[in-house]
Amino acid sequence: MSAPSSSRLHHTPASFAGLSRFLREGVAQEETRELRGSLGALSEHIEAATRARRTSADAQAVARSIEALARCAREHQLQLTGMGSAWHALHEFGAYQRALRELRDALARWQEALQQRSPSEAERFGEFERLAWRTLGEALLVLDMYEQGDAHPGDSGMGRTPRPARRRPLLSRLRGWLARVAS
């Protein structure tokens, strides 16, 4: 496994963990609490797999982290499938589900390259990591849209009634939190 640049080594792993903390610490509406928890767990597994890839010379330890992440991602996708119609009515929800499927596919390609000791393993890892950020970004957008009132329980998805905004949007709060953590 090739070593990443020092800047990526320093910033990326802590950021997945930071995102997980943000999701767990944020004030959540009852309807979003379960999804936030599941996203936090997914982010923690992504963190564990990327950290194992960067710090462990033991390919089996990396493989175990990937397997745990694959299970977590599968469970998370099943959770999404069972969510209510108000969630499924959001255009962003469909985009998030697609991003999660693409992430799982990239994870499988990385896992296969690792098992085969392929020279493309580093490239597959990079692809996975980029898709992990995209997927988590899509998830934050879904949470933000939902929490800002684009939909809520009991909506059929047709003629949704927006809730009045009670606080800053999730992405704005995330940027503020990241700025505080970085300083």
Q: Which structural traits does this protein have?
A:
183 residues; mainly alpha; globular; disordered N terminus
Task: Describe the model.
This protein has 183 residues and is mostly helical. It contains 7 helices and no strands. It has helices at 6-25, 30-55, 59-81, 85-88, 91-115, 121-147, 170-182. Helix 2 packs antiparallel against helix 6 and helix 3 runs antiparallel to helix 5 (91-115). The two termini are 32 Å apart. 30% of the residues are buried. Mean pLDDT is 78; it is low at 1-14 and 150-166.
Largest sheet: none
Separation of termini? 32 Å
Oligomeric state as shown = single chain
Number of strands: 0
What is the string of SSEs from the N terminus onward?
A: HHHHHHH
Mean pLDDT over the full residue set: 78
SSE blueprint and pairings:
Elements lengths: L5 H20 L4 H26 L3 H23 L3 H4 L2 H25 L5 H27 L22 H13 L1
Helix pairs in contact: 1-2, 2-3, 2-6, 3-5, 5-6
Q: TL;DR of this structure?
A:
The chain is mainly alpha-helical and 183 residues long. It has helices at 6-25, 30-55, 59-81, 85-88, 91-115, 121-147, 170-182. Helix 1 packs antiparallel against helix 2 and helix 2 packs antiparallel against helix 6.
